[in-house]
Every structure is written in structure tokens, then in C-alpha cells.
Amino acid sequence: MIRYIDQPDVITEPIPSGQVYNSPVASSTPSSQTLYEVNLAVPFTSQAPLKNWGLPYAEFCEEASALMAASYIFGWSIPTPEFADQKLLEIKAFEEQRFGYYKDTTAEETAVIIREFYKISKVKVMYGPTIQDIKKVLSENKVILLPVAGRLLGNPYFQSPGPIYHMLVIKGYTKEGNIITNDPGTRRGADFIYSPEVIMNAMHDWNGGDVLNGKKVVVIVG
């Protein structure tokens, strides 16, 4: 099913705690085509579900993005903030055992989390994607994790000046061409709209902390 409703270039209100977001899922389409508009049914959580933005939650954007992506693949909800909090801490424990740390995982490391922690085999890291590549992937009902130089997003709800490194979920695009995300960096991040220019400019991997020179890359799940 394809969405044909108008969606202004502003963010929507956050999903109330305990409520599951059930937007339509795009129908299958040949790989050579993209749909007119897509908004995949990816449940939302912020990276600080209990509104504690201190450590470790200040660093949980990758964990929250992985949780949202896996929940979409398995058809799970994220029913309460307490549920989300528990799952994020479980991912942190896995990272510390697997990598020796949990902060600032790269695109490749985040793919490892999804493959090994969630046992999802259909995970691909794509370097140098275009906006058309992103739309094609979404049209195939696959969800995207996007590492970014967070301050280049210009999100007004981030605590100034914003994170040096950040990760979010791309879940769709509007008929006007804007990109629909679940951005865990704000409690208002469900269905947060960014322009394609902002997405492409901000797209950068961790790169050892030199994020602005990090590669253009996305993680595709599904």
C-alpha cells in the first residue's frame, strides 16, 4: 500500500508512550522502479526513552536505530519506554562483549549488531549511495540506517550544538521528495522530515572521530 497523503516539510508530534505506529508498508515493486511515496511501518523510540539524556543514553543513537530496524523486520512493537530502555541496555551489553565498547559504532559495526545480536542475515553496507538508491531500497520494503555528522542536520530539537556523530533510521520519502526518518536524537523524532540535500550532505561514517571526512555510507536491512 502506498501513501498518497500530503505531508508538509515539518516534523510530526511524537508517538504517545505505549502506542504503536502503524503506517502503511509499501507494496513490493520491481527492483528497477521506485514508488510514488513510501512510509514504512517502523516503530519509534528515542535513544533516551526514559528522558534521561546523560550517559549511556547520550550515546545510544546507534542502539536505538538498530532496535527500530529490527522491530520493523520482525513486526515487533516498542510498546513502552521501559521496554525500549531494557532493549537498549541489552544491545550495549552485546557491544561491550563483541567490540569492547559501545560508543560511536561505525556503519560496519552497526551491521554486525543487527546480524549477530538480532540474527538478521539480510544486512548490507552500501558505500556512496545516491538519493535514488535510497528511494529504490525503501521501495523494496527495506529500512535504512544512516550515520551522519549530526551538526549538519540542523535539527532544532537537538541540544545545541548537536552531536558530532549521530545515527538515524530512514523509513520513507514523500511525493515532494523529502526524506522521512525516525530520528532517535529527539523525543519528537518520529516521522521527522529532512530534505534530501540535508541527508546527503550530513551522511558521514564515524571515521575514528573525523566524521566530516567519513565515507558516505548506509546500512540496509531487509
Description:
- This protein has 222 residues and is of the alpha+beta class.
- The protein has a single domain (38-221), classed as Alpha-Beta Complex (Cathepsin B, Chain A).
- It has helices at residues 61-74, 81-98, 107-117, 131-139, 196-202; strands at 38-39, 123-127, 143-148, 166-173, 179-182, 192-194, 217-221.
- β4 and β5 form a beta hairpin.
Q: Tell me the span between the first and last alpha carbons.
A: 18 Å
Which secondary-structure class do the elements indicate? alpha+beta
When the domains are counted, the total is 1
Number of β-strand runs:
7
**Unreliably modeled segments:** 1-32
Count every helix, treating DSSP H or I runs of 4 or more residues as helices.
5
Query: Approximately how much beta-strand content do the residues carry?
Result: 5-15%
CATH superfamily membership: Cysteine proteinases
Taking all Cα atoms into account, the compactness measure Rg is: 16 Å
Averaged pLDDT = 87
Helix content: 25-40%
Question: Under the CATH scheme, which architecture would be assigned?
Answer: Alpha-Beta Complex
Overall CATH class: Alpha Beta
String of helices and strands:
EHHHEHEEEEHE
Q: Would you give the CATH topology?
A: Cathepsin B, Chain A
Main pleated sheet: 7 strands, antiparallel
